[in-house]
Amino acid sequence: MITKFRIDQSVAQEEFGLACQRLIPWTDAPEDPPLGAMACFLRPGGSSLPDCHNQDEFMLILDGTGTLDLAGESTSFEKGDMLVLPRNQEHVVHNGSADENLVWVSLYWPLREVPQS
What we know:
- This protein is mostly beta strands.
- The chain has one domain (about 10-25, about 35-110): Jelly Rolls (Sandwich).
- It is about 0% helix and about 45% strand.
- The strands form two sheets. The protein has a six-stranded antiparallel sheet, with no helix packed on it.
- It is globular and about 40 Å long.
- The two termini are about 20 Å apart.
- The relative contact order is 0.29.
């Protein structure tokens, strides 16, 4: 069975100081997935709240430009870039644009949360 999702900011909910659309796990997933995924939408000129978790994270930048602050280090990124964030490292994402959303998909593992309904 094929399950199809569309990244859609209109169904995202406020989390971590930005809008997040939970992708994995989904409400009626047949099994417990080994990872989680969400689409993230950060308003122009905005910054996420500081976050630190015991999960590795992979960010795929879909649109926009920004900066990632991770454990005292900073790097800029743009559409098409991929970033790997090691677990237990505090991080903050900044949108570098004054007029466009920054959009990315984060994959994180191992999964330590319950599906959103």
